[in-house]
Design brief:
- This protein has a single domain, classed as Up-down Bundle (Four Helix Bundle (Hemerythrin (Met), subunit A)).
- It is mostly helical.
- The protein has 5 helices and no strands.
- The radius of gyration is 16 Å and the shape is elongated.
- It is 79% helix and 0% strand.
Length: 152
């Protein structure tokens, strides 16, 4: 299976979100690189980093939607919750010794691309507008403080 190649069709035009999505793509591609090397410790490390970062990304993304009063936030959160459950199931299977990497990669790649193109692009305009309004009201420190809050 090939790496995910970033393309303009994956951009939300929200710089901080696009950078986070690119980092998630990087983790998925790293998992692709370690697949089949028979090093479960390295696979587990990449999987844990991918899951941890994705959870932080979801929380950050949801906070942006809340601040923007995005009308479909509950549905978006539910999509995130279902995805987390699905990935948690894969992690359990992995921890029990099953080789789930190929199947997981297929799911991750398809889900991420579809999610960005449809679900994330649905909220992009309202969040971009709100970010512009927040920057005008609070100065440029708001976004960097939020990023630090979620990502250290």
């Amino acid at each position: 299976m090939a790496h995910i190649q970033w393309s303009d069709e994956l951009n939300t035009d929200i710089d901080v979100i696009d950078k986070q999505h690119k980092r998630i793509v990087g983790y998925i591609n790293a998992l692709e690189d370690v697949k089949g090397k028979n090093d479960r410790a390295v696979e587990e490390k990449v999987l844990n980093e991918l899951v941890d970062y994705t959870l932080s990304h979801f929380a950050f993304e949801e906070s942006l939607m809340e601040d923007a009063d995005y009308g479909f936030i509950n549905g978006h959160k539910r999509v995130h919750q279902l995805f987390v459950k699905r990935v948690s199931d894969f992690m359990q299977r992995f921890k029990m010794g099953e080789d789930v990497t190929e199947e997981l990669l297929t799911v991750l790649k398809a889900w991420l691309i579809n999610h960005i193109k449809s679900d994330d692009n649905d909220y992009a305009d309202i969040v971009k507008k709100n970010l512009g309004n927040m920057d005008a009201r609070k100065g440029d420190g708001w976004l960097s403080k939020s990023v630090k809050k979620f990502f250290g």
